[in-house]
Amino acid sequence: MLSALFDADAPVQDIVAQCAADLGLQAELTIEDVPETDWVRATQAQFKPIPIAGPLWIVPTWHTPPHADAINLVLDPGLAFGTGSHPTTSMCLQWLVRERPTGTVLDYGCGSGILANPLRVLAPALTARLKPSASLVLAGLLAEQAEELIGIYSPWLNMQVADTQEG
């Protein structure tokens, strides 16, 4: 089954018939009117403030921080940072709260589930940027990729798995 939204004046039957013909499929079509909806508000309703660790909260811009004395990271979920609810984001923020690094922090991100290919190749470049006694946190990996990456980074660092969430 495929659900799709079309403008009210779109030739839906013609579009579906052409798509089905192109795919060599038979199409069964049901057309329903979708009530007028404020999609921005409907989308915003699903995002609530998220407690991360200790005093840190991620708060969507349209919410009042639940704890004014907390560290409130106020953002628009879904843009470059995402929603803050992804395990990778959550674990990195928990690490920041726990370790409280000083100095420069480099954040290199390229999306969930695809970090192991770039992190293999970037090992020499990332480790070359570390100052003595600096930490390197790698996240966004599948659990089964951890040992391979620990091996790749072993010429420069003694690494271990610090945390996992949802594989």
Description:
The protein is α+β, with helices and mostly antiparallel strands and 167 residues long. The chain is built from 6 helices and 3 strands; from the N terminus they run ααβββαααα. The chain has a 3-stranded mixed β-sheet with strand order 1-2-3, covered by helices on one side. The protein is flat. The two termini are 30 Å apart. The model has no long low-confidence stretch (mean pLDDT 86).
Brief summary of the model shown:
The protein is an alpha+beta fold.
Radius of gyration: 23 Å
Mean pLDDT: 86
Q: Give helix and strand order, one letter per element, not per position.
A: HHEEEHHHH
Distance between the termini: 30 Å
Question: How many beta strands in the DSSP annotation?
Answer: 3
Strand content: 5-15%
Class inferred from helices and paired strands: alpha+beta
Count of helix runs = 6
Adjacency order of strands in the biggest sheet: 1-2-3
User: Tell me about the biggest sheet?
Assistant: 3 strands, mixed
Apparent shape: flat
What portion of residues is helical?
A: 25-40%
Uncertain regions spanning at least 5 consecutive residues: none
